[in-house]
Predict the 3D structure of the following.
Amino acid sequence: MITGAGTAATSEAVPAENKRQFLLPAAAAAILALLFLLLAFDSPKYREVSATLSPSAQTIAQAPERAEPGTRIDINTADLSQLQQLKGVGEKKAQAILDYREKNGRFRSLDELTLISGISASIVENNRELLTLS
């Protein structure tokens, strides 16, 4: 029977001092690698590349800008892109507003928007200050 076999492969066989000498440089290298990755992926070039590759980034880039405070949108004359500037109104809801207006004529009140499927009273209230009627 062989005694003491296999002890060289256990952690007990490596002195604690040697472990520290290995772990400190390894930890420093890991921290430096992490910093490098953070800086590399935050560069404008990476953002440009990721925007061209990421479908969700493309969707965000194509999303219409929201109406600026003080800007009024006339629901009787607004086009698709202008209606999409309203809070809670995307392409489908904007198109529904245009379809309703085409079928029923000019809006007589802002509350008439709630007759359109998908346009809730809260959407009208959230946009009341942005909307106008001609």
The chain has a mean pLDDT of 78. Residues 16-41 form the longest helix (26 residues). The beta strands are 73-74, 131-132. Residues 20 and 77 are 73 Å apart (CA to CA).
